[in-house]
Design the sequence.
């Protein structure tokens, strides 16, 4: 089957910061299952049709870290569009959220797997992510921030 090229173009992808620690555990087979913290922001760049997604992923970070791995990573993806002028805001948002964000997640996943491949517990594979849930929670976060900003403007 021939592929159809996307109107979303990946112009560049980078790791801006990466910290990975190995934390010894008494039982290698029973490493804790911990929650991941993931956050992303989509920004429009001055040049029309250019966008940047910044993503942070944290795992087992804090004062009481459990045995296994601990990491914090910041990545960025830079994107542009073919036929930008013909796209609606909704189309652009959908391309960035449902293509751009997963591209960046997968890049971060591969970088973590590569870095941890020679660690004592072996390669760490970032689990698959429920994108629908991630997007829903991000939208709620944005709405809460907008309401908070509106209240601040009204009270000033």
Sequence:
């Amino acid at each position: 089957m021939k592929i159809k090229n996307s109107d979303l173009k990946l112009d560049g992808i980078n790791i801006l910061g990466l910290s990975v620690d190995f934390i010894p555990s008494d039982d290698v087979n029973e490493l804790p299952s911990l929650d991941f913290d993931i956050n992303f922001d989509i920004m429009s760049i001055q040049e029309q049709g250019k966008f940047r997604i910044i993503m942070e992923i944290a795992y087992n970070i804090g004062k009481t870290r459990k045995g296994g791995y601990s990491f914090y990573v910041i990545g960025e993806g830079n994107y542009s569009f073919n036929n930008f002028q013909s796209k609606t805001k909704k189309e652009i948002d959908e391309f960035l959220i449902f293509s751009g964000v997963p591209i960046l997640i997968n890049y971060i996943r591969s970088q973590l797997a590569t870095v941890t491949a020679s660690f004592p517990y072996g390669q760490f594979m970032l689990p698959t992510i429920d994108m629908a849930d991630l997007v829903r929670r991000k939208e709620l976060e944005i709405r809460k921030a907008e309401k908070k900003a509106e209240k601040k403007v009204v009270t000033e």
